[in-house]
Amino acid sequence: MKTLKTLLAFVAILTLSAFTPVHNGYHIGDIATDFKLENIDGRMVSLADYEDAKGFIVIFTCNTCPYAQAYEDRIVALDEKYADKGYPVIAIMPNNVDVQPGDNMEAMKARAKERGFTFPYLMDAGQKIYPQYGATKTPHVYILQKTKKGNEVKYIGAIDDNSRDASAVNTRYVENAVDALLAGKPIKETETKAIGCSIKV
Fold first, then answer.
1. Distance of alpha carbon 151 from alpha carbon 47, whole angstroms
2. Residue-number span of the structural domain to which 53 is assigned
3. Cys-Cys link to 200, which of 23, 100, 101, 191 (CB 3.0-4.6 A)?
4. CA 119, CA 117: separation in Å to the nearest integer?
5. Would residue 9 count as lying in a domain?
6. Confidence class of residue 23 from pLDDT cuts 50, 70 and 90?
7. Would you tell me how many other CB atoms lie within 10 Å of the CB of residue 87?
8. pLDDT tens digits for 122-168?
């Protein structure tokens, strides 16, 4: 009987762990390391280049994902609203271009021009940065705030609560988070579920 109870307990633990999401990468409060990635204009860009920034809206996104495409105008709007307030958008394309050639640098340049990107659009060549962050989707957002310790992770997740229809959005997670930081207030929702295409490896 004791053996049966032990076995059932073991099976229960295995079952629970199978359905418990594994969260690799950064957590809220972690300090994000800087990077140096190639922009669509050929320049190498790092967070340290933005001396006057208060923080960053780092968004892992791409050309080819329908979810990422649906968010493009909203990403441009975020940069237009917050760059001058100290929180510029930094977009990073994390996909393996051998697997997803529509996300190569030439395609990134064309997409940025077509869609009027006002922010850096960087390639994660070698796919070294997105795993550090723990990004799994496009789009996937990380809001960083400059502190004495470094760039502290303050929010992780989705841009808002409607990945398909901008006119039907009820909660603007990223805007709420940045507004709270600018006002010196705590962020009410620090983590949400990113909805989008899986990053291609």
1. 9
2. 25-198
3. 100
4. 6
5. no
6. low
7. 27
8. 999 999 999 999 999 999 999 999 999 999 999 999 999 999 899 99
Separation in Å, CA 89 to CA 21, 142, 186: 28, 10, 21
Q: Which of 180, 171, 187, 166 is nearest to 85 (CA)?
A: 180
CB burial of residue 65 (10 Å; 0-12, 13-18, 19+):
buried
- pTM score of the predicted model: 0.88
Give me the sign of the Cα torsion angle 174, 85, 74, 97. negative
Q: Are 79 and 118 in contact (CB under 8 A)?
A: yes
Query: Could you check whether the bond before residue 94 is cis, i.e. omega within 30 degrees of 0?
Result: no
- Chain CA centroid to CA 107, Å: 20
| CATH number assigned to the domain comprising residue 42 | 3.40.30.10
Q: What is the mean pLDDT of the chain?
A: 91
Give CA separation, 177 vs 30, 144, 159, in Å: 16, 10, 10
For residues 197 and 72, what is the distance between their CA atoms, to the nearest angstrom?
14
DSSP string, 65-105: -HHHHHHHHHHHHHHHHHGGGT--EEEEE-S-TTT-GGGSH
The two beta strands, 37-39 and 197-198, are unpaired
Q: How many domains is the chain partitioned into structurally? A: 1
